[in-house]
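Weekly structure sync, notes
Attendees: PL, DS, HV (note-taker this week)

Item 1: Oligopeptide transport system ATP-binding protein
DS walked through the input record. Source organism listed as Cohnella phaseoli. Sequence as pasted into the shared doc:
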Amino acid sequence: MAKQLAAEPILEVNELVKKFPVYGPFGRLVGPKAHVNAVREATFRMYEGETYGLVGESGSGKSTTGRAILGLTPATSGEVLYRGKDLVKLSQQELRSIRKDIQFVFQDPLSSLNPRKRIGDILEEPLIIHKIGNREQRQEKVFRILEVVGLQPEHYFRYPHEFSGGQRQRIGLARALIVNPKMMICDEPVSALDVSIQSQILNMLRGLQAELGLTMLFITHDISVVRYISDRIGIMYLGAIVEEAPTDDLFVEPLHPYTKALLSAVPDYTRSRLKERIVLKGEIPSPLSPPSGCAFHTRCPLATDKCRVDRPAAREVRPGHRVACHYV
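Item 1 (cont.): predicted structure, written out as tokens:
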């Protein structure tokens, strides 16, 4: 059963754009010779207490979108409204206070953990930065959060390399949760883990969300994972969201040709719904020079001349179900 969404969104992303400069042999001396269009006018809403899944192939701009929301990668243009405040326009000092409310969980926890620090010191660091509690209170909070994510008190004194991949991801979650955030951005947090460990982490996330009332942006390329954990899903292709719908609606009747192709790659789904595998021709176009019109027209079986010229705007075809396609 779908969750009842709040009346007002907690986060609004409006026409978010992120371009990375590409420099020639003289580097920055003569300016960029081109730009990588990583995110192209991405637009979506998130409501308090829900999990919004952002799905797409590698290189579609999912992780860049998550980082741009929090200012880890500065956006080129667009709006990111958190409770009405535009994060794109905030200074780094102003963003620091917002990051207490919005925490980021990285795909590779080992690369985000300081190898020279014990886990206890790593988890205390956010509390020190945000001036939360004295030393005794911080230490007590660290022991409590270790228990919440399924770790033991003795893990406080160990170093990151002494843990397995699943344990390190739990540490990453503990570091995000320790400041009591309102929202978390999870960037493929289970993609590098064994299936059994994945299920443990996903179940823990669902339990913590229900207990703490968290709002989550869950970034992944795994259709099965996003179906299990998400309330609504946005399908991303070449930096833009081409379809958005409640999870059940999307899996019962996908509308965009790209979404149908993605879902047909899931064996169980193909047998029960689409009957046959949809194989896309060609490769994803380069973000250095994205196609004109609809970005998907170079691989779409329905493409016409109109698709090559006019970029389709996302429109609501059913309550809560938006699609960017001329022929839906």
